[in-house]
Amino acid sequence: MEQRVIRKTNAIKKQLSELEYVIFSFKKQLIEDDCSPEEQEATFHEITIYRLKHCIDTFWRYLETYLRDEGFPLEILSPKSMIRTSVRSRLINEEEASSLMATIEIRNKIADEENEENPRKITECAPEIFNAMNIIVERLTKRLEDNELGA
């Protein structure tokens, strides 16, 4: 396994870990802090969206590096083309592809500063996005490890 794949794997695992903390533990910590429920809610949404954005961006860089390292052809370096290549290459299934396509839409909403989308709607998607990315990263990590053992 090349060093860049190892670095990208470590980077996405770190981002996933930070996103997991925000989604599942951070709100409990906010409740213990001395701030109003409105401040707690706003802070939770702001931090979750920030972490989600960075995690999604890191995931795409990880997937691109993984596909290139494995020799899969990438015609265009867009998330949608990487998803299509991943499905054709049987790295992800159709259900995961659908979830990742929805993730692209969420990421685009986050990037659109003019968007008036309710932050709650975006943060409600965070656990599903986390789970989808985490499952794929774990599977691809195992595949790389198995390939290393077989080499």
Write a compact overview of the structure shown.
The protein is mainly α and 151 residues long. It has helices at residues 3-32, 37-69, 79-88, 94-111, 119-150. 25% of the residues are buried.
The radius of gyration computed from the alpha-carbon positions, rounded to a whole number of angstroms, is 17 Å
| Stretches with pLDDT under 50, minimum 5 residues | none
Average of the residue pLDDT scores: 84
Number of helices: 5
Shape: elongated
Order of helices and strands: HHHHH
Total strands: the figure is 0
Which terms would index this structure?
151 residues, mainly alpha, single chain
Please characterize this protein's 3D structure.
The model has no long low-confidence stretch (mean pLDDT 84). With 151 residues, the chain is an all-alpha fold. It contains five helices and no strands. It is elongated. The longest helix is centred in the middle third of the chain and has 33 residues, at 37-69.
Topology:
Blueprint: H1 3-32, H2 37-69, H3 79-88, H4 94-111, H5 119-150
Helix pairs in contact: 1-2, 1-5, 2-3, 2-4, 2-5, 3-4, 4-5
